[in-house]
Structure formats: structure tokens, C-alpha cells
Amino acid sequence: MSEAEDRELRALQAALAAEHAAVYGYGVVGARIGEDLRTEARTAYDGHRARRDALVREVKDLGGKPVAAAAGYALPFQVPDAAAAARLAAELEDRVAAVYADLVRAGDGGRRALAAGALREAAVRAVRWRGESVAFPGLAERAGQAPPSAAPTA
After folding, report:
1. Is 3-142 assigned to CATH 1.20.1260.10?
2. pTM for this predicted structure
3. Exposed/middle/buried for residue 145 (C-beta within 10 Å: 0-12, 13-18, 19+)
4. Which residue of 8, 20, 40, 86 could cross-link 69, Cys pair, CB 3.0 to 4.6 Å?
């Protein structure tokens, strides 16, 4: 495997790990979000499951063994109500956008396009949940920082 393919595989695995975490996190969001936003939470959950499944195929196509989901994930904060659930959803989308930004850099051709599309979708969902946007989703909030973990952590 070439260095570029290895870098791309690592970025794919990180994106897959982020999608596993997002699927888990949206389970929490769905349990706490108000009825008025439940459809949006379900749509995001389904979207992350579809992205996760596509990433499993991409990892296998590069000869890798897809990273497995953890049994559970520590959330970055308590989620006792609908407002906290919406904040969690925005945080999940920010984290997913960050790893897809890495995949855009590491990917080539079709995988770069897949990552760019996923980055755009995460950024749009984050805006919906948060009510405001950032200048460069997946990039600006990471300036001068180490890459965040894909998984929600305490």
C-alpha cells in the first residue's frame, strides 16, 4: 500500500469511527429531543447510518478492516432535556465535519467527493441544530488545536 493510500485509509477509519459515534449520539438525541424536532433527529440518524455503511465498504475496498463501533460512548456533557439534546446534535455534527475535512485532504477522486458531500451535510445539520454557522465548517474551530476525537467524550 502506498503512503497516500495508507493516509486515505486512516482518514476513512477516522470518519467511520466518527459515524459510529454519531449514530450512538443520535440515539441519545432522539430520546431527549422534543416532538417538534424528532423527525429531524431521525433523518440525521438515518443519514449517519447510511454514511457509516458506505464507509465500511470504502475501508474494505482499500483492503482495510473496518473499525468497530464501541459498546458505548461518553458524552461531552449531560443531556437531560431537549435543549441539551440539540446542543449534542450540533456537537456531533461538528465532530463529523472535522473528520470529513481530514478525509477531503487525504482522499482522492471519488472519495474526496464523498467526503466533501458528507462535510457539507454535517455543516448544514450543525447550523440547523445550533441556529448559526461557522466560516469554515470542520476547519475554523480546529485552528491551532490538536484534532478532536471522533467520539463524544466527557
Report:
1. yes
2. 0.85
3. exposed
4. 20
